[in-house]
Automatic annotation (TrEMBL), chain A:
SMART domains: AAA (SM00382). It holds the Pfam family AAA. This is MoxR-like ATPase. InterPro entries: AAA+_ATPase, ATPase_AAA_core, CbbQ/NirQ/NorQ/GpvN, P-loop_NTPase. It comes from Bradyrhizobium huanghuaihaiense.
UniProtKB/TrEMBL annotation, chain B:
Residues 72-110 are annotated as: Disordered. Signal peptide: none annotated. InterPro entries: UCP010256, Uncharacterised_CoxE, vWFA_dom_sf. It comes from Bradyrhizobium huanghuaihaiense. This is VWA domain containing CoxE-like protein. Residues 88-100 have a biased composition (Low complexity).
Length: 315, 458
C-alpha cells in the first residue's frame, strides 16, 4: 500500500535524476520525494563541489520545470530578492499624465475636493504594473510551478533569512502596497549552504535538512561513469580509489566530486589508460587548489597509486 | 505506532536533538508518506525532518538504531532459558498434550502469562513486555537507581501475581511443568531487565547529561580530574557556540534618526536629486579586539588553558585576539593556538614558558617593551592570573599605563575574593587600575566573564 508506493516512488526519483546525469544516493532521493509530498523546502549542506547546486538543476530538468536561481551574497536585500518598484517608470508616467491630472482635477473648487477626487482613483502608481518581480516573486508567479534555488544562503545576512521565512513556510509574500501574493503552484525550493555560518533555527525548522558528504567509492564511480562516458573502467576505479586516499590526508581543501569529474576529463583528454606517478604529478593541480596541499600530497602519490591499484584487484 | 513515534521523539530529545512540536508534526507527516515497512527509508525520513546538523544526524542515527532494535534482544535473551527447557520439553509436550487432550483442566486453569510462557511464543512475549512497559510508563525513567522499581512494575503489569499463584498450584499438582514455568520466568525477568536498561539508555540520557554538565560547570577548573578534561573541553566548546550565536548577529543598523544627507543625495542622483530613497546615519559598532595575558604557572595553568580555548573559538564574534602566556617571562602564543589542536598547543606553550615561578613584574615589562603599541582605545585587555608574584616587584605602574591605553582592563582571578591580598597576592594593588576584577574559577564564571566582555561592544 502506502509503504510499497513510497519505496517505488523513491526509486522513481532516483532513476529520474539518473536520467539527467545526476546519480543520487538513497538519502538524496528520499529527501526529494519527501519535499514533494509534504511540500517543504530542502536545505542542502555539505562541502563545496559535491553537487548541491547540480541537484536543483537535475530536479528542474527531470520534472521539466523552469529553474529560478537566487545567488545570495552579503548585502542582498528584498529589493534585489523579492520585488522592486519601477521608480523610473512611475516618474515617467507622472510626467506624461500631468496634463491628464489637470483635466481630472479641473472640476474641483477647493484643495480638499481635489484631494478627494484624487483618492477616488486609488493607488494607480503602486499597482502590479509598477512592480519589478525579482527571483522570489517570479518563483511564486510561475503558473506551472518551478524549482527555486536559493544558492549559498549562508553568505547572506541574518535579516535576509527572516525575509525568507514567510516564503518557505507558506509560499507567499506580503507586499505592503498590494497585499499578499500566494504561489499559484508551490515551487520546489532548494536552499544550499556551505556552513560558513550557522543558520537560524527558525529557517532550519522550516526545511528538510539534507547533508551531502563525499560519496562512497562505488557511488562516485557511477557518477564519473555518467558524467565522463569516455573513461575506461580500470582507470575509473583507479582514479576514484586514488581520490579516496587523498581525502584521508589533512588538507586545506579536500577534492570533491566536481574535482573528480574534472580530473577524469583531463585524464581522458591526455589519453591515459592507467594511473602512473608522472601523469598524476602533472595533473595534481586539477585536484588540489592550494600550493601547500599539493606539496603535502606529492610525496604520497606513489603509495596512493599502489594502494588504489591493489584495492582494484580485490574490489 | 503513533505512540512509538512519540516515544522516539522523547528519546531524540534525550540525545540532544531539539524536537519542537512543529517538527514532530512534520516528522509524522513524513512518516505517513513513507510508511514503516522499509527501515532505512523510515530512518532517512526522520533524519531529514528532525536533525538540523550533521552532528545531530549522527546522534539521531544511533538513537534510532537503539530505539528500533528493541525487539531483537528480547527475542534472543530467553534463548538460553529456552534451550534448557527445550530438553525437558521433549517429554513435556506429550504429557502436556495428553493432559490438554484429556481433561485440559490444569492448562486451562493457568493465567494468560503462564500460558504464554509455556507456549514459548516469543513474539507474544515481546509484545506483552512492550505493552506492559507502556503501562508502567517506562519512558519516565530518569535515574539508574530506578531500574528495580520499573522492572517490578512491568512484571506486575504483565500479571506476575497470577503467575505466582499458578506456580504454587502447579508445584503441588504438576512439578515438572512448574519447573519449566520457573525457568521461563527467569528468562522473562532477564528480558524485562534488559528492556529497562535500554529504556534507561534511551530516555534518561537527557537528565543525566544535564546533571553532569551542571556539576561540571560549577567545578573548579584548576582542580579538574584528568578524565574530565575532555568533557570540559566539550563543555567549553558548547559555551563558545552559545556565545557565538548570541553575539555574532550583525549589529543592528540604525534605521531612524539622523538623515545621512550625503548618502541620500548620492543614492537619488538618478532621479535628479528628488529623495525617493532615504539613507539614515548608522551607528557603527566595532567588534571586540582582545588582548589576553594568561598566567600559565602552576595552579592557574589549567584555567588559562580553558580560557584560551574559549577565547580562540570565538572567531565570529571577536575580530582580533592576541594571546600572551607568561610565568617568569612573557611570549606571544596566538600563532601556536591558531595552528595546533588544543592539546598540542598547550603542551608547546607549557614547554616554552610554563613551570616557572610567576613573576608578574618582569612579564609586564616584557609586554610593555614589545607589544604596548598594539593597544588601541578599542582593545579590551584581559589578564588571567592569581596575582601571586612571589614577593617580587609587581610593577603596577605598567598595568596603569596599559589601562590608560586600552578600552577596558579586566582581571580574572581563579582565587576567591577572600584570598586576595593575603600572602604574596598583589591583587588589591593591581585592582585599582582594572575596570573589572572578577573571580573566575568555574566554567560558569568563565562564561559570564567572557560574555560580559563581549557584551560591552554590542
Amino acid at each position: 500500500m502506502a509503504d510499497q508506493k513510497a519505496s517505488t516512488s523513491i526509486e522513481a526519483v532516483e532513476s529520474g535524476l539518473a536520467a539527467q546525469g545526476y546519480i543520487a544516493s538513497r538519502q538524496i532521493a528520499t529527501a526529494v520525494y519527501l519535499s514533494q509530498q509534504i511540500e517543504k523546502p530542502i536545505l542542502v549542506e555539505g562541502p563545496a563541489g559535491v553537487g548541491k547546486t547540480e541537484l536543483a538543476k537535475a530536479i528542474a530538468a527531470w520534472r521539466g520545470m523552469k529553474m529560478i536561481r537566487l545567488q545570495c551574497y552579503e548585502g542582498l536585500d528584498e529589493a534585489k530578492a523579492l520585488y522592486e518598484w519601477k521608480y523610473a517608470k512611475q516618474l515617467l508616467y507622472t510626467q506624461i499624465l500631468k496634463d491628464k491630472l489637470g483635466e481630472v482635477l479641473g472640476g474641483a473648487q477647493t484643495l480638499h475636493a481635489a484631494l478627494d477626487q484624487l483618492h477616488d482613483f486609488g493607488d494607480v502608481f503602486f499597482s502590479k504594473e509598477f512592480v519589478e518581480p525579482r527571483p522570489l516573486l517570479q518563483a511564486l508567479e510561475q503558473p506551472g510551478g518551478c524549482v527555486l534555488l536559493i544558492d549559498e544562503i549562508d553568505k547572506s545576512d541574518a535579516e535576509f533569512e527572516s525575509l525568507l521565512l514567510e516564503i518557505l513556510s507558506d509560499f507567499q509574500v506580503t507586499i505592503p502596497e498590494l497585499g499578499t501574493v500566494s504561489a499559484i503552484t508551490p515551487p520546489t525550493v532548494i536552499l544550499t549552504s556551505n556552513s560558513e555560518r550557522d543558520l537560524g533555527d527558525a529557517l532550519k525548522r522550516r526545511c528538510l535538512h539534507l547533508h551531502i558528504g563525499f560519496p562512497e567509492q562505488r557511488l562516485e564511480e557511477r557518477i564519473v561513469e555518467s558524467r565522463v562516458p569516455g573513461i575506461s573502467q580500470t582507470l575509473r576505479r583507479q582514479m576514484v580509489g586514488f581520490i579516496h586516499e587523498i581525502r584521508s590526508l589533512d588538507l586545506k581543501k579536500l577534492p570533491s566530486v566536481s574535482e573528480t569529474i574534472d580530473w577524469a576529463r583531463v585524464l581522458v583528454l591526455l589519453q591515459a589508460t592507467e594511473l602512473d606517478t608522472d601523469i598524476v604529478k602533472d595533473t595534481l593541480n586539477v585536484l588540489l587548489k592550494y600550493e601547500a596541499d599539493i606539496e603535502a600530497a606529492a610525496p604520497q602519490v606513489t603509495t596512493f597509486i599502489a594502494k588504489a591499484a591493489r584495492s582494484n584487484v580485490f574490489g | 505506532m503513533r505512540e512509538n513515534l512519540h516515544r522516539f521523539f522523547r528519546a531524540a530529545r534525550g540525545v540532544g536533538v531539539h524536537v519542537s512540536p512543529a517538527e514532530s508534526i512534520d516528522a509524522m507527516r513524513a512518516v505517513s508518506q513513507v510508511g514503516f515497512s522499509d527501515r532505512t527509508i523510515l530512518r532517512d525520513a526522520l533524519l531529514l525532518t528532525l536533525a538540523k546538523s550533521q552532528d545531530e544526524k549522527l546522534a539521531l542515527r544511533d538513537c534510532f538504531d537503539l530505539f528500533f532494535s528493541q525487539p531483537e534482544p528480547r527475542q534472543e535473551q530467553p534463548e538460553g532459558a529456552d534451550q534448557d527447557t527445550a530438553q525437558d520439553a521433549d517429554q513435556a509436550p506429550s504429557s502436556g498434550a495428553a493432559s490438554d487432550a484429556g481433561g485440559g483442566s490444569p492448562q486451562q486453569e493457568l493465567g494468560p502469562l503462564a500460558q504464554m510462557l509455556l507456549s514459548q511464543d516469543r513474539n507474544a512475549i515481546a509484545a506483552a513486555i512492550a505493552s506492559a512497559s507502556g503501562a508502567a510508563s517506562l519512558s519516565d525513567i530518569r535515574y539508574s537507581t530506578q531500574r528495580g522499581i520499573f522492572s517490578s512494575r512491568i512484571l506486575d503489569a504483565m500479571g506476575l501475581q497470577r503467575l505466582r499463584d499458578d506456580l504454587d498450584e502447579l508445584t503441588a499438582t504438576n512439578p515438572s511443568l512448574a519447573e519449566r514455568l520457573r525457568t521461563a520466568l527467569d528468562g522473562l525477568r532477564e528480558a524485562v531487565r534488559d528492556t529497562v536498561s535500554q529504556g534507561l539508555a534511551l530516555y534518561a540520557r537527557e537528565e543525566a547529561e544535564n546533571l553532569r554538565n551542571e556539576i561540571l560547570r560549577n567545578a573548579p577548573l584548576a582542580r579538574i580530574e584528568r578524565r574530565q578534561v575532555a568533557e570540559m573541553r566539550a563543555l567549553i566548546r558548547q559555551i563558545a557556540r552559545r556565545l557565538r550565536e548570541r553575539y555574532s548577529k550583525p549589529r543592528k543598523r540604525q534605521r531612524r534618526g539622523h538623515l545621512d544627507v550625503r548618502r541620500t543625495l548620492r543614492r537619488n542622483a538618478a532621479w535628479g536629486g528628488v529623495p525617493f530613497l532615504t539613507a539614515w546615519k548608522r551607528k557603527h559598532r566595532d567588534r571586540p579586539k582582545i588582548v589576553a595575558l594568561c598566567d600559565v604557572s602552576g595552579s592557574v595553568a589549567q584555567v588559562s588553558d580553558f580560557f584560551l580555548l574559549l577565547i580562540h573559538s570565538l572567531h565570529e564574534v571577536v575580530d582580533d585576539v592576541r594571546s600572551f602566556a607568561f610565568s617568569s617571562h612573557l611570549i606571544e602564543v596566538s600563532q601556536i593556538l591558531e595552528s595546533k589542536s588544543p592539546e598540542e598547543a598547550m603542551a608547546e606553550i607549557m614547554s616554552k614558558v610554563g613551570f616557572g615561578s610567576s613573576d608578574y613584574g618582569s612579564s609586564l615589562v616584557d609586554f610593555e617593551k614589545e607589544f604596548m603599541s598594539m593597544l588601541t582605545p578599542q582593545t579590551t585587555v584581559i589578564v588571567l592570573g592569581d596575582a601571586r608574584s612571589n614577593n617580587l616587584d609587581p610593577r603596577a605602574d605598567i598595568l596603569r599605563r596599559i589601562s590608560e591605553r586600552s578600552k577596558r582592563l579586566v582581571w580574572l582571578n581563579p582565587e576567591g575574593r577572600l584570598a586576595w591580598g593575603f600572602g604574596d597576592s598583589e591583587m588589591p594593588r593591581y585592582a585599582t587600575f582594572c575596570s573589572v576584577v572578577r573571580q573566575c574559577a568555574t566554567a560558569q564564571q568563565l562564561e559570564r566573564a567572557v560574555s560580559d566582555i563581549v557584551a560591552t561592544y554590542q
